[in-house]
Amino acid sequence: xxxxxxxxxxxxxxxxxxxxxxxxxxxxxxxxxxxxxxxxxxxxxxxxxxxxxxxxxxxxxxxxxxxxxxxxxxxxxxxxxxxxxxxxxxxxxxxxxxxxxxx
Length: 103
Ligand SMILES: [Zn+2]
Hints:
Layout: E1 3-5, E2 13-16, E3 22-27, H1 38-58, E4 63-67, E5 73-77, H2 82-92, E6 100-102
Parallel strand pairs: 5-6
Antiparallel strand pairs: 1-2, 2-3, 4-5
Zinc ion (ZN) binds near residues 11, 29 and 32.
């Protein structure tokens, strides 16, 4: 019994066994093609993205996000000033497990 899982942060697709371990790698995106532990890396990226979303959503921010080829989370704010970006960066930093920038 496997469960198909794909993150919202990339195009990887895994079939996970009952313990949550990848039984079958259905697809690897270009960013995770060479990753030794793609699930661990994807989980870190998800944690950082979710932390950023929680903080920016709570602030009512208008933004989109994406990951660079190198794996940096870029948060593209709309209409935010430098002070707001600085505040959000400070709030996200302790929760971030991959590099990020607030633009
Ligand atoms: Zn991926």
